Amino acid sequence: MNKLNEFNKKQLKKDLPRIKSGDIVRVHQKIKEGDKQRIQIYEGLVIAIKHGKGINATITVRKTSKGIGIEKILPIHAPFIEKIEIIKRHKVRRAKLYYIRDKSAKKARLKEIKEKPNKNIPSKKKTETKKEEIKTEKK
User: Fold this and answer.
1) In contact, 135 and 47? CB cutoff 8 Å
2) Domain locations in the chain?
3) Is the pTM of this model over 0.90?
4) Where are the alpha helices (DSSP H) in the chain?
5) What is the CB neighbour count within 10 angstroms for residue 61?
6) How do residues 39-67 score in pLDDT, each as one tens digit?
7) How many C-beta neighbours within 10 Å does residue 102 have?
8) Fewest beta carbons within 10 Å, which of 10, 95, 100, 131?
């Protein structure tokens, strides 16, 4: 059992973003067609995250195409998933957004979260003044 856990840890992807339900994501998938291989992009709303953070973790992504709702259940750590990008984040109060299936276009709107700038990164002006203070102290 220990060897199985070690193998699974090696298969986990380390560069994945923190995905939550309510995010609009763009998933890049590798698709084989005969001898050729290409990348297809699937963009939609994450309505569910299941099976934790391990090798079995999946996300359910929903989009509407020509008025028809399409859902895909994608394993996050699968080798055919090239990368996952987060396009937008929405404020949601539930972990599973299955109620979106019954809503039509305008009723299915979610409130978007605006990204806040990091306060930990110092601005250029502060670093320039600190450098000037250090120079004056040395003289």
Assistant:
1) no
2) 2-138
3) no
4) 2-11, 124-138
5) 24
6) 999 999 999 999 988 899 999 999 988 88
7) 9
8) 10
